[in-house]
Amino acid sequence: MRPLARALGRHGYDPQVVSYSSFFTSAERLATEWLPRRLVALGLDGGRQMDVVTHSMGGIILRAWVRAHLPAHLGRIVMIAPPNAGSAVADHMQRAAWFRRLFGEVGRELGTGPASLARGLGPWPAAAGELGILAGDRSINPLFAHWLGEAGDGAVSLRSVPLEGMSAFRVLHHSHTALLWRRETIEETIEFLGHGRFKGA
């Protein structure tokens, strides 16, 4: 996230990169326990408006936090490649013992099955701020592309990214991880945070 944070800083924002570990815990616990404590430590727990940019699972953590707290101080939010309806790649990875040991509950939460946190969070609430979502349509991993079985960024299918209640949506020709570093992603993020729209939408 740091190249994106530096770009936001050059445009007058005061970015805080909030990192988390998904090992040996759940996305829901990150959302309801870890994130509130981290926001308090950063002074971002309600005293001033907060815009948010997430990547991948970060979008699910944010959604779970919003569901639990419905914060009134959110401004605009950009989610980059969020698995909002779960990921078929996570479903397949769950079959590997090492993945289950390493990611445990998080792996199930990001899948498409009954234990999917991503699928059960509901639409984006209008009161939680304007939401723009960027998706990728390029896969560089043939196995993951096969597991998805449809267009996507190699980790999340295009169908799984949109969310009811979003204000804007755009697809960029990049893979899941590369989306973070591309100039086009950074430009579109800055555009949405400033104006509530994407340039190419």
Topology, pairings included?
Blueprint (H helix, E strand, L loop, with lengths): L1 H9 L16 H15 L8 E6 L1 H13 L4 E7 L7 H6 L3 H13 L20 E7 L5 H7 L19 E5 L10 H13 L6
Parallel strand pairs: 1-2, 2-3, 3-4
Features:
single chain; 201 residues; alpha/beta; Rossmann fold; 4-stranded parallel β-sheet; 7 helices; 4 strands; 38% helix; globular
What's the gist of this structure?
This protein has 201 residues and is of the alpha/beta class. Helices cover 38% and strands 12% of the residues. The protein contains seven helices and four strands; from the N terminus they run H-H-E-H-E-H-H-E-H-E-H.
Quickly name the level 1 CATH class. Alpha Beta
The CATH superfamily name is Alpha/Beta hydrolase fold, catalytic domain
- SSE string: HHEHEHHEHEH
Say how many strands there are: 4
What does the main sheet amount to? 4 strands, parallel
Strand arrangement, major sheet: 1-2-3-4
Shape: globular
Mean pLDDT: 87
Roughly what fraction of the amino acids lie in strands?
A: 5-15%
Structural class by helix and strand composition: alpha/beta
Number of helices: 7
Instruction: Give the second-level CATH assignment, the architecture.
Output: 3-Layer(aba) Sandwich
Helix content: 25-40%
Number of domains: 1
Distance between the termini: 23 Å
Nearest-angstrom radius of gyration?
16 Å
Any idea of the CATH topology?
Answer: Rossmann fold
Low-pLDDT parts are: none
